[in-house]
Amino acid sequence: MRRAPFVIGVLAFALVSCAKVPTPEEANGALVTLREHGSWAWAIGIGLIWADLVLPVPQTAVIAALGIIYGAPLGGLLGSVGLITSGLLGYGLMFTSARRVMQRFTRPQSLQRMERVFEQSGAWAIVLTRSLPYSVPEIMVFLAGLAGMPLRKFTATLTVGSVPIAFAFAAIGAGWADQPIVALVVSWVLPILLLPMVLYLLRRRAS
Length: 207
What we know:
Layout: H1 4-16, H2 24-36, H3 41-51, H4 59-70, H5 72-93, H6 97-104, H7 108-120, H8 122-129, H9 136-146, H10 151-175, H11 180-206
Helix pairs in contact: 1-11, 2-3, 2-4, 2-11, 3-4, 3-5, 4-5, 4-10, 4-11, 5-9, 5-10, 8-9, 8-10, 8-11, 10-11
């Protein structure tokens, strides 16, 4: 049980590693898409972050694009709204018919184990994984809903994990606004580089 968060992280990585990995060209495409929609770029950006629940959208690149377009403060605010509402949507899905679909692939003993995990270390798992690639943050959100993590606690940890990430990547976008390709590539690569460190921290937290 002490290594359960680390195991969940590794399994999450393994389960989705076969998915199509976003390329820098796709990250640049996100910026082009946002700019094409003019005054509605903020709504498209949030929509792309929501889409990351089911599609391999590089959400950190989307937030960097919002930083390029709107600057770090507003881009960070929009990114925060996108990440928090996306997390709440994923959590809420586990209280609909989608929960039964997930439970078909989860043994009752495993569900009880997940509930204990999220009572002990679920908050840290959510906070530390908000910027990670390969759908790891989305899987953590689904597990939180599936394990019945209290909504108030989930919302608080989701906010703590999302806001700093959003402002950080919006700042990356704003800082390299004159070199948007560099900003988007950095925002795409950095979460991948952070993945081993976060899994290590989760393992230490659980030990």
